[in-house]
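Dear colleagues,

As part of the handover before I leave the project, I'm documenting each prediction I ran so the next person doesn't have to rerun anything. This entry is a single chain, and its sequence is reproduced below.
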Amino acid sequence: MKLICIGRNYAQHISELKNEKPSEPVVFLKPDTSILLNQQPFFIPDFSNEVHHEVEVLVKINRVGKYIDSKFAHKYYEQIGLGIDFTARDLQQELKAKGLPWEKSKAFDGSSVIGKWVPKSNYNNVNNISFSLLKNNQIVQSSTTEEMLWGIDEIIAYISQYFTLKIGDIIFTGTPSGVGKVQPDDSLIGYIGEEEFFSIKVK
């Protein structure tokens, strides 16, 4: 099982980090050791002074696929979830400035929150799912999948050109604007619509 993440998939998030808008999806991987265990708090790593929350809609792959046409991509997932891609922003900026890979800032242990899963049939249109993140009971990120530069089916088709998708693989589809630093004792709660998908504490 692998975690496949899409970066720079929301225009306003690209602007807030002063990044260049990509001409195709930005893809990076995270190992399964990055998954935060259920009911566990997120511990800020001692190698970063600026870890940011990035809430994202997730999809779980349910069949093996390679070179998938976007018109058939909907057959490759049945579940929708919500999670966080924690990012050591200070370390990421340092690595980017040197032209080095991002993995140390993105793929460290406990950096991937995966909330509960629900059937995608719960939603009339996966390209118009509203989701949000509350930090200490204040909304800090809020958007809809309609704001994605590349929709879920396009992402699956694109990824499958490079990586064989296998049962259980999870795709993080990108984060909207509003990312920010987490502090010890913060409470983070993720919602799709009015339904809670995860709740974690920061230590």
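The chain has one domain: 3-35+51-127+142-182. The chain has a mean pLDDT of 94.

All the best with the project,
I.
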